[in-house]
Write a structure and sequence with these properties.
By secondary structure, this protein is an alpha+beta fold. The radius of gyration is 14 Å and the shape is globular. A 4-stranded mixed beta sheet has the order 2-1-4-3, sandwiched between helices. It has one domain (3-122). The model has no long low-confidence stretch (mean pLDDT 93). α2 (30-41) packs antiparallel against α3. The protein is 47% helix and 15% strand.
Amino acid sequence: MDKKRFKVLTNNPLVSAKLSDFNILFCDNIHEVYRFTRDHIHQNWRLTTHPLAGSVKPVQNPYRTIIIEKDDVISFQSLQIIENSLRKVEQFSVDHIERQYSTDILDDYQMIDLSLIESGLASI
């Protein structure tokens, strides 16, 4: 696998450390991960992993990682998926009360996100 073809967008410090041999774009929060992914898709990147992977709602886990791959043209399928995912995140955010999690719980959420992205990488 040519890791230079891929970019990892994440707000998860554990993913950033574990996948440091990839091109990492570290984001401040989950919303930035989705917005920056959309912006990249407009610049001829396509989704490699699904932005809503896993059974945890997008705003329940404060960490999200998405992998994209450079392409020659705009992937309209990727654009549709990320736009729908953004709407879903915004929809969940409206009714979501932001919580303060303990370090242990944040560590667990980081592990969940890492596990999901490692599963995605295994299928590439």
